[in-house]
Design a protein that fits this description.
Blueprint lengths: L26 H17 L1 H5 L21 H16 L4 H14 L2 H13 L5 H14 L6 H13 L4 H13 L3 H14 L7 H14 L20 H8 L3 H21 L4 H13 L3 H14 L4 H13 L9 H13 L4 H13 L3 H14 L6 H11 L5
Helix pairs in contact: 3-4, 4-5, 5-6, 6-7, 7-8, 8-9, 9-10, 11-12, 11-13, 12-13, 13-14, 14-15, 15-16, 16-17, 17-18, 18-19
Length: about 400
Amino acid sequence: MGPEPMTQNRFRMHDTTSAGPAAARNSFKRWLIAAAAVLFLAAGAAFLLVDFDALRQFPNVPRPPLPAADPALEQQAAEIRQKLESAPADAALWQGLARTYVLQGKFAEAVPAYKSAIDNGAEGAAVQSAYGEAQVMAASGQVTKEALAAFQAALAKDEGESRARYYLALADAQGGRLHEALDQWIKLESDSRGDAPWRKSLSERIDQTANALGLDPQNLPGRGGAAAGEPSMADLTLAARLPQAERTAFLGGKTKSLAARLGREPGDVKGWTVLAQAYKLLGDYPQSLAAWKHAAALAPDNEGVLIHYAEAILALRQDGQKLPPEFAALTQRIRTLDPKNLEGLYFGGLAEQDAGNVSGARTLWEELLRELPPESPQRVEIQRQLDALAGGG
């Protein structure tokens, strides 16, 4: 579940905006998003099978009926297990096996496979969220303590990870905290695209919960998205598909309203992230950078915000221009929070290269190559950049 993979860590939407001053430098970032999307969509199959029409008391989520035996999936699982005999530390193989088990409805088998994938280096919000969901399904729909930890780990990497947000709210509901669950589901509905495949079921769950609490589903505080006159995440997704002139007409006034409110309420980190993305869609890269800087100051431990901030710096960099000092500090902070973060490794290499430390750049990009799956298309670009360092360290 989730708005299409908001990369391996964070609350970002797909970047379909027009190119900025240095958009080519961000192509690697988009490739990382695409790679995460492949994993996310495959791992998300179980979520789409969940029956959301649970009892209003929400003791659990009914486990979906087991699919009919599929010889092709059986063969696929057997082949992966055979490969694991000679490569037991291959995280990608473990993750592939876990996804195959999920497609077979073998959730109890998927759980240890996902754990092995994570223990051997699989990272990112999507794999943690899929691991948690497999545990929920294996426990007949109960959000167990172990599943809860997995979802919390997912949100630590991407606070917008929708599947994790859904199940954490479900845990509240199962614990009798229906009001808290309702609030979280309303926020998730607000952040979801109107055409998201889970949106209808989520909205029905909100209606059911409101009815169970004696509330009017159509007049719930916060339902319908952002504050009146401000851009919502759904607005940003829609705006990204519009021609620039229409985009400006659609977002311009809402963006001004949000900026004015943040001037009065500067502690709203989510508001700053929305404002930053809105400015980027409007082509105002300096203002987008300023908004990400505000967000990063409010959330210095949020990898997603820090990565967006770094990207905004790169978007304004002109050819041959030195990176500002905060870029190196920013990338170091990202790597301190998560030494294996792919974008952190890539940006760190850029910072080292910019500082003339060819050896340091090579070390980070070689580590990045080791972390990328063998079939990843990003490997070609990273190898090209490594080759360009030849003779420098």
